[in-house]
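Ticket closed. Logging final result for Fe2OG dioxygenase domain-containing protein.
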Amino acid sequence: MAYETSVNEAPSSSMSAPKTVPVVDFSRFLHGSVADKRAIAREIDEAFRNVGFVYLQNHGVPQQKVDECFEWSQRFFALPEAVKKLAPHPPGGSHHRGYSGLGVEKVTQNVFDSNEVEALRQMPDFKESFESGNVHDQMQPNIWLPDEELPGFRQFMEAFFLDCAGLIHTILRALAISLSLPPSQLSDAHSQSLFQLRLLHYPSIPSSLLHSGEKSRIGAHSDFGTLTLLFQDDVGGLEIQHPQTEEFIAAPPIPGGVLVNIGDLMMRWSNGRWRSTVHRVVAPPVSKVEREELGDEEAETEMCRPRYSIPFFATADPETVIECLPGCEGPDGKKEFEAMTALEYVQMRMAALYA
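Final structure:
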């Protein structure tokens, strides 16, 4: 799974992107020397330039807390629908907090025309979610269940948010170092930590419905913030689109690792230096053992196991002007994207998600 390359050589457009997601030991950035930090920053920079994704191991968020978050997620989604709806996601996408039931959201990719979006929503994503954010976010206050319905849930999620936010700010420092910017420059642009912690549940479903396209877990899309952390369970099914061949390749969970990817806003900010790569969730692969036990035909029509994942989405402070970062200019100083604020871009993307 590891992708080995010289961190002293900047990737060029002629380089072939790796066919697997690079794996980086982040402990060298957290605890290493200045030289270690620079080396890891270059590895992450190269991964984002070539693939847009990287696995970080030894990333500093305790595995015990990650495991506990999955336990809380399972407990939440196991609640009766009527109870989960006591923390309802408001209509539309401007206040992205609370519980969304099956079929409410439809992830789209660069589709903003209302008629096209409505047509795509005829096959909504077969998943449910719960969103929370920074307790100090006055623009999007959190929407929680009454404490007596799931005691301890809110307290844990607020603490886990801080763990993930701390990791985001550390990765942003690594990216700033990779561009020879002041280490805090990108982190400072996220000073309000207006991030989003999401719990996702993909219920069990016949594999045949996913293979036929009658149902979708999450269709092909890119994220629209700056960075995303993704903690996965052991079910699998996540695929990313190879930047050159456009084939989809598996991005399976790695024990103890977190998958990190670039979002569209960061791609704009870096003038396209870092890739915002399209990805999707499909039917998980059928294991060799399952095929031997069931046979090929029955294995393909079996029920997919339920899948849980925990993405953590970061975006810059709303008033941050997103324009080409120093050192990311193209030939002759070319800038590929017009300047806009982080808020303007996020609102445009969110409007396409919800009816």
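The chain has twelve helices and 16 strands. No further action required.
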